[in-house]
């Protein structure tokens, strides 16, 4: 047969087979050991995932309109390259394109690669193995367990930040011990503890110090923190079980086995090589549509902390637009019932134009970056500024409200996701991050064990979000001056110079809502932050309605901003923190239950209404009334129903109801699906700090100290006090003796406020915990002594 007829026949048979597939097969089964030569039907050998994808793409290009599915059989899929879906692979509303695990939780897509190793004893407890020449990797797993890259100080579980830190990590003596530190990394908190920063070591300087590059991971420039830092990927620091080091130049892997491991039996290890696993890539004019990803485990992506450098609209953030799943230019696409675990960077990143994305039913845990991010295109913002200190002159301001283009996420849902233990590497992260987006609904998510905010909104562009029924706790665990929920509003109207800002707000009050065009609603959530505020609306955050939230620890802060209405919230053991308010700000704070006096800082103008709130002590109410507010406020016992179990509704006889407070449900926070409920943790319910005369003889544990109220004449006389008031130190543990408090001291003031008893001390401490330290005045040897913890 001649060549030309043979080619024609082959093309005919290929097209005929495609036609049969289009008619008879809409579901393609794939497996980790599939073959491109197979048909991928359920009863026969399976396809590879790449072949199934390319076949469906060809069928769609031929005009097929079917609802195609790729069903992944059980096992681990090691990708050679990310799976990228373009607009030509879109499904339709009636015929979506499904990528689904046959058995949920049994299919893993990995950004890693398995390599075979032959271990040999190196010296002491350290073993060595040859790896393929030219191979580079920064994560390593053995039998599914991530190992620790050689570091100083050694990793310590439960120590914050970073699992251990040391001021001498960059000491001259330590650097001198490193033969060749090039390729190592420095990880440090921002000087103000506003997130973290990372640096790549490039070598040694002649004076014995290190040369390095980086630090661009935070949009508020800073030196690195002087003590909260550590170094990694330096051979000489390989001295602890579970640590490893790769000598890239010699292609040698060194490892210190964990106790009990038979290293000679470990012949296969997994290392990360990809930073992205699935990308849906379209555009405003030609989006990817109706692709659904369901039931898959995503793991082992490469850390991307050195690529986190894109500045975000005067927020404190820089970002890298990447994740295990990247959605960029999509409509009606979803990620559901999947797991994201052991990722080096972000989980799901929704970038630029996206409409009606749905992220639901997922478990996201133990990852290096943020869990779910929505970040629009800065080109959609009018008169954008990027650094905190930047601004657009008033004479050059674009004063058209709203976005300039549709290139941003909108109309999307984040529902029923369990997110915990994120930000293992990067510290400026969130469970849900929102910037340059509109009309998102964030509902019924459980978010905890995070280094910074659980939910963060980086600007006011363009509002309309509904944040409801979330359970957000154990937040701001490694940083400071932040909240379980945090927002900034440094929009185009905002100016870093307060004097100029005051004049702009007076002359152009309509500019305030040029970007925050829609009201963001925060309702029916449970928030807890022991190192900041439960709800923190920071610089310029405007146009919010906040109600029916249970705040367990940090209270609620409204820094400079406009049009915030806050009502019917319960603030346990804390209260209201108004900071540096503008004139004519139109803020409202009313019908809330608070347990401390209002903690005003530089507030000369009190908005439209700060009144009719319920205080748990008369003293707290009186202190608040000294500001000329709360004329209709009342105080008393709120009569919570069962506070020990977290039900802070009030009894029908409570005076709070007469004041206007309305009970709301307190058992609907967090994830909804039964599977995730069984996995989710719950916050610790705090003991109420209510006045109780029966506590005078009780001994309390406070920050390791044993303390009690000064209650008797004998205690007053022994201390030489004028009255039986204050908190007596009974015992100081050895490990904190250097903090300056001594046995027999009596705490009389905390942060300049009088301390009458243990309840006072705890409430004042709670109200000021965001400062990161405690300032006390104690009575010692007939005189007042200042102490800082």
Automatic annotation (TrEMBL):
Annotated signal peptide: 1-22
Annotated ranges, domain Right handed beta helix: 324-476
Domain GH141-like insertion stretches: 198-257
SMART domains: PbH1 (SM00710)
Assigned keywords, A-Z: Signal
Protein name (Swiss-Prot/TrEMBL): Right handed beta helix region
Pfam families listed in its UniProt record: Beta_helix, GH141_M
InterPro entries assigned to the protein according to its UniProt record, in alphabetical order: Beta_helix (IPR039448), GH141_ins (IPR048482), PbH1 (IPR006626), PDZ_sf (IPR036034), Pectin_lyas_fold (IPR012334), Pectin_lyase_fold/virulence (IPR011050)
Keyword NADP: no
């Amino acid at each position: 047969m001649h060549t030309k007829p043979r080619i024609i026949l082959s093309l005919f048979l290929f097209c005929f087979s495609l036609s049969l597939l289009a008619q008879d097969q809409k579901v393609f089964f794939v497996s980790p050991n599939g073959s491109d030569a197979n048909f991928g039907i359920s009863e026969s050998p399976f396809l590879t995932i790449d072949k199934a994808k390319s076949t469906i793409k060809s069928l769609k290009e031929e005009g097929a309109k079917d609802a195609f599915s790729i069903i992944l059989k059980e096992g681990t899929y090691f990708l050679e390259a990310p799976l990228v879906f373009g607009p030509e692979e879109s499904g339709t509303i009636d015929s979506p394109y499904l990528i689904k695990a046959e058995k949920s939780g049994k299919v893993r897509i990995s950004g890693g690669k398995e390599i075979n190793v032959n271990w040999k004893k190196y010296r002491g407890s350290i073993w060595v193995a040859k790896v393929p020449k030219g191979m580079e990797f920064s994560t390593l797993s053995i039998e599914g367990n991530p190992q620790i890259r050689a570091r100083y100080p050694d990793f310590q579980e439960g120590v914050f930040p970073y699992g251990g830190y040391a001021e001498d990590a960059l000491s001259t003596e330590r650097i001198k011990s490193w033969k060749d530190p090039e390729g190592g990394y420095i990880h440090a908190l921002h000087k103000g503890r506003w997130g973290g920063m990372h640096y790549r070591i490039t070598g040694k300087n002649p004076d014995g110090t290190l040369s390095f590059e980086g630090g661009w991971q935070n949009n508020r420039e800073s030196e690195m923190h002087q003590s909260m830092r550590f170094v990694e990927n330096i051979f000489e620091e390989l001295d602890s079980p579970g640590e490893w080091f790769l000598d890239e130049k010699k292609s040698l892997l060194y490892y210190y086995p964990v106790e009990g491991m038979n290293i000679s039996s470990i012949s296969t290890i997994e290392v990360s090589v990809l930073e992205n696993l699935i990308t849906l890539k379209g555009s405003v004019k030609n989006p990817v549509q109706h692709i659904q990803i369901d039931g898959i485990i995503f793991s082992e992506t490469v850390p991307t902390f050195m690529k986190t450098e894109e500045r975000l609209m005067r927020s404190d953030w820089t970002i890298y637009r990447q994740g295990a799943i990247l959605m960029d230019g999509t409509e009606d696409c979803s990620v559901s019932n999947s797991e994201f675990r052991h990722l080096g960077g972000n989980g799901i990143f929704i970038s630029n134009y996206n409409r009606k994305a749905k992220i639901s039913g997922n478990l996201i845990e133990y990852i290096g970056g943020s869990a779910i991010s929505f970040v629009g295109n800065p080109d959609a913002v009018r008169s954008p500024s990027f650094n905190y200190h930047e601004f657009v002159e008033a004479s050059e301001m674009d004063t058209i409200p709203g976005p300039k283009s549709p290139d941003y996420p909108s109309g999307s849902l984040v529902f029923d996701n369990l997110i915990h233990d994120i930000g293992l590497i990067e510290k400026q992260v969130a469970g849900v991050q929102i910037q340059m987006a509109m009309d998102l609904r964030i509902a019924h998510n459980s978010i905890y064990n995070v280094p910074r905010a659980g939910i963060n909104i980086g600007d006011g562009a363009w509002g309309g979000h509904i944040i409801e029924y979330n359970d957000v706790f154990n937040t701001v665990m490694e940083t400071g001056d932040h909240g379980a929920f945090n927002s900034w509003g440094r929009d185009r109207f905002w100016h870093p110079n307060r004097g100029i800002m005051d004049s702009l707000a007076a002359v152009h009050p309509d500019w305030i809502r040029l970007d925050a065009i829609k009201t963001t609603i925060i309702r029916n959530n449970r928030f807890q932050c022991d190192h900041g505020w439960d709800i923190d609306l920071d610089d310029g955050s405007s146009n919010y309605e906040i109600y029916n939230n249970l705040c367990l620890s940090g209270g609620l802060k409204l820094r400079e901003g406009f049009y915030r209405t806050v009502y019917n919230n319960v603030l346990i053991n804390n209260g209201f923190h108004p900071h540096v308010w503008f004139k004519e700000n139109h803020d409202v704070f009313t019908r809330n239950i608070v347990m401390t006096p209002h903690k005003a800082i530089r507030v000369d103008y009190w908005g439209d209404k700060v009144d009719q709130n319920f205080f748990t002590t008369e003293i707290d109410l009186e202190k608040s009334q000294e500001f000329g507010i709360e004329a209709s406020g009342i105080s008393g016992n709120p009569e919570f129903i069962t506070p020990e179990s977290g039900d802070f509704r009030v009894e029908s006889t409570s005076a709070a109801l007469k004041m206007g407070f309305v009970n709301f449900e307190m058992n609907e926070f967090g994830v909804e699906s039964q599977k995730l409920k069984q996995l989710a943790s719950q916050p610790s319910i705090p003991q109420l700090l209510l006045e109780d005369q029966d506590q005078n003889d009780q001994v309390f544990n406070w920050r390791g100290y044993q303390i009690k109220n000064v209650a008797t004449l004998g205690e007053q006389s022994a201390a030489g006090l004028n009255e039986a008031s204050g908190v007596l130190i009974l015992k100081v543990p050895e490990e904190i003796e250097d903090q300056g408090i001594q046995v027999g001291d009596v705490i009389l003031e905390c942060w300049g406020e009088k301390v009458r008893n243990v309840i006072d001390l705890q409430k004042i401490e709670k109200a000021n915990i965001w400062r990161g330290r405690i300032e006390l005045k104690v009575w010692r040897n007939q005189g007042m002594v200042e102490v800082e913890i």
